[in-house]
Amino acid sequence: MKIGILGGGGWGTALAIILDSRDHEVRLWVYEAEETERMSRTRENGTFLPGVRIPERVLITNSQGEAVRNAEMVVFATPSGALREVAQKLLVDSGVQLSGAQAVVIGSKGLEPKTLLRMSEVLSEVFPEAFETKLVVLTGPSHAEEVSRRVPTAVVAASSHRASAALVQEAFSTEWFRVYTNDDVVGVEIAAALKNVVAIAAGICDGLGFGDSTKGALLTRGLVEISRLGEALGARASTFSGLAGMGDLIATAMSRHSRNRRLGEAIGKGMKLEEALAASKMVVEGVGTAHAAVDLARRHGVELPIAEQVRAILYDGKSATMAIRELLTRDLKAEPRALTRR
Fold first, then answer.
1. 89, 114, 195, 333: which is the annotated catalytic residue?
2. Which of 156, 157, 183, 272 has the fewest CB atoms within 10 Å around its CB?
3. What does the DSSP assignment read for 47-62?
């Protein structure tokens, strides 16, 4: 199968390695011309995945049109804030409609800051032609640093169209990368976006020197918030106990690879947001999502206490200790019997 990947960061490169192992014809689009030349010459993504070799068969290109022309599957692996721009550039500059692709895969996790749209909603606006049946969201507990080194991983391919999800499942599944299918697109996208916010909170706890008890409570209550918003938007509660929900939350909030957790840890140790962002060579999705998620929740009358405190720390300069104190002194209540909108 001919597959074009838009986004030559760590995740896009890792996906190219997976797909090449399945003998697909893979073309990887990289934004910067200089980085394209370097990666083509060294067969390594030295910025994001140093030490991991990119297979010789993977074509690395600076041309979007070359990457996706005649592709049977197109994969978007860009930062969430850049997805619309990349898609529109593809449409305008290359004249590509993606109508010939059997599936369009979204590997980006987040909410569009200005519109509060999920990634599938963004692409549906740019490419409206019968697009919903082709869209597949690929998400779950998966760090590029591990996947590219063939560390056993399981993810989920979600689509409202069962055949499209099955196509992606078959295309990506290997002996070390297992793909399950799901039809709850709203649920997996909300989980993928909001787990980054909770991961920042987890990092703040690490930076403050708190222990496992704190982290356990934070992740549990964070998952309740994610489920609460997801269900308000029409998602299934069961999705949040699966790979896209609990699985990705644990991996992102606990891992040394997690840029969101690392940023939170830096802030917990007293670093300013601007300094922490400058120290990270990768986009930290949870920063923008914290703002968007709270706005989206307020629009639907949903409470997100943890996300609201993370947003206040990031954008209003609120002290982390004050935020935690306010969370712990909220009105006392019973624990919900299940992951519901309570």
1. 195
2. 272
3. TTEEEEEPPTTSEEES
